[in-house]
Amino acid sequence: MAKKEKSEYLIQSVSHALDLLEQFHDEVDELGVTELSKRLQLHKNNVFRLLATLESRGYIEQNKVTENYRLGLKTLELGQTFVKQMGLLRQSRPVLEEVVRECNETSYVAILKDFNIIYLDVVETDLTVRVVPRVGSRLPSYCTAAGKVQIAHLSDEEIDEYFPARELKPLTINTITDREELKKQLKQVAEQGYAIDDEELDVGVRCVSAPIRDYTRRIVGALSISGPAMRLSTERLDKELIPLAIKAADEISAKLGFHK
To answer: What are φ and ψ of residue 219, in 5° steps?
Structure first.
């Protein structure tokens, strides 16, 4: 008997419920029944039933003032469970704390997902002027050190497959917007083993990042050190922060079973 494709086992109502939850992303905090109906292309009655079910389980809650809906605490609990279960997070936390003790700049671990980077964990400096990355937020890979150090090890074909139809949007005057120039820089990143974000994402912010590998030698994330450009001079990057980022990323990699 032929094996059925997994798509044949999909339950439409569950799929609709997940589609509804996924509407709450980025800056979208609250949505009403009418807006959700338009987005999901479902009748309002169907949307209301989905909301009622999700609300009863704590995945959705209603703002009693606006009567709109937002994510409930249960979604946060699930997200925290996922993060805690990731070996990368467990192994990286003490290393991040040690990095911040050594250089007193914000340090974080990020992963690559759909050519965006996602912050998994952050340890901040106690200095008043500092970079404060938000855990869970998504940023483009082409203009971040953590992104470039991870996509640098992809083939030209993989890079071309993603970027041809996508504009490399300039976020600052330093953002690389030419694909060929980006690929040239990525080759250099792969050779040197680290990447720099020289005010390419945010004006006044610099960052250095090194890759984290697991026991299969696959890159599974990146460790970064970020700070105001006025503190992260080229000299300090070269003498202190680049070596520190590489050492810290190597330490996490070793904990994940990677051996050079």
So the answer is: -75, 120
Query: How many independent structural domains does the chain possess?
Result: 2
- Tokens read off for 86: 């990731």
**Residue 81, in any domain of the structure:** no
Tell me: do 64 and 111 sit in the same domain: no
Q: Is residue 1 part of a domain?
A: no
Same domain, 62 and 156: no
List, for residues 211-227, the tens digit of each pLDDT value. Answer: 999 888 889 899 999 99
Question: Do both 228 and 137 map to the same domain?
Answer: yes
pLDDT tens-digit series, residues 156-201: 788 877 776 567 889 999 999 888 889 899 999 999 999 999 999 9
The answer, as to whether pTM is greater than 0.70, is: no
